[in-house]
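Section 3.1: Structural characterization of target chains.
Under the original work plan, the team committed to producing a structural model for every single-chain target entering the pipeline before any wet-lab resources were allocated. The record below documents one such target. The sequence was received from the expression subgroup and is listed exactly as submitted; it comprises 195 residues.
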Amino acid sequence: MYPTREEAEKLLKDAETCNPGQWVSHSRITAHCAEKIAQYAGMDPEKAYVLGLLHDIGRKFGVFHLKHVSEGYKYMMSLGYDEVARICLTHSFNEDKIEAYVGKFDTSEEDTEMIREKLKETEQDDYDKLIQLCDAIAGAEGIMDIIDRMSDVKRRYGSYDPGKWQTNLDLKEYFEAKMGKDLYEAVEKDTKTVF
């Protein structure tokens, strides 16, 4: 289950009133990229858009690092949106391992264990992978080159797991093959400026 586009937009607007910040524009850019890739890759563009829009919804509850994953998961589960909850969980873990998280571990022991267990139980599909890729090219001000975006994250947090880095590059290749199209052309990197 996931909300309609209109419901997802309302959820994001409400979240923005609770915790305004660049994460909101980043979420909109992620959603745009997910929708465009889905159109070319034979996936559901509406579902991709909604999942991209709400992947960081846990930020509604405060300025968090890893905690935005558990908060988003719990919030979406409470609304019955289990497909969005799953994306809130998986978008930060393209390798299925919590140790590769880029940022601070600000979760309780209970929430850290919950994330670890849910990752073990989840077999990631193309929607999980799609949002991971889009998260890796969506800056706060526009669509970025994947290397530039990962370098920016590395600068801000001091490190970037090498396996996660390579997996993002592999995801780019995977979706380009699926689309039969260059990633940046598909997401309108050089022409789309307003989100």
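The chain is about 65% helix and 0% strand.
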